[in-house]
Amino acid sequence: QVQLVESGGGLVQPGGSLRLSCAASGFTFVNYVMSWYRQAPGKEREFVAAVTGNGNGTHYVDSMKGRFTISRDNAKNTVFLQMNSLKPEDTAVYYCKARRVGAASAYWGQGTQVTVSS
Q1: Binning pLDDT at 50, 70 and 90, where does residue 64 land?
Q2: What kind and span of H or E run contains 116?
Q3: Residue 22's beta-bridge partner residues?
Q4: Coil/strand/helix, residue 90
Q5: What sign does the dihedral 72-44-88-47 (CA atoms) show?
Q6: Which of 87, 86, 94, 50 lies closest to 71 in space, CA to CA?
Q7: Using an 8 Å Cβ cutoff, are 7 and 112 in contact?
Q8: By the number of CB atoms within 10 A of the CB, which of 4, 11, 53, 102 ranks highest?
């Protein structure tokens, strides 16, 4: 059974940092591109960052380059999102996604809430 379990969300002040984790199980983790998406209230889900199976390739949405860093630990089947210099507009539910290269479908986690507020 495939599972993606996000953790690490919470309430943080503007300018603060959070590190999200997504623990994966039920599939061969190294064969999957792992991504983070987010969805703010009243908005569509949007792409944040992705990392290739071996961890050597990363891609970010331009607005988050330099503030967010995606990484993975294939030994622990976990992907991370380090978020620095957080802004109120980063408030959203953050989701983890796993997709095998060339596959049409993907697996999603349940999401973790990040709230940036003073």
Answers
A1: confident
A2: strand 112-116
A3: 6, 79
A4: helix
A5: positive
A6: 50
A7: yes
A8: 4
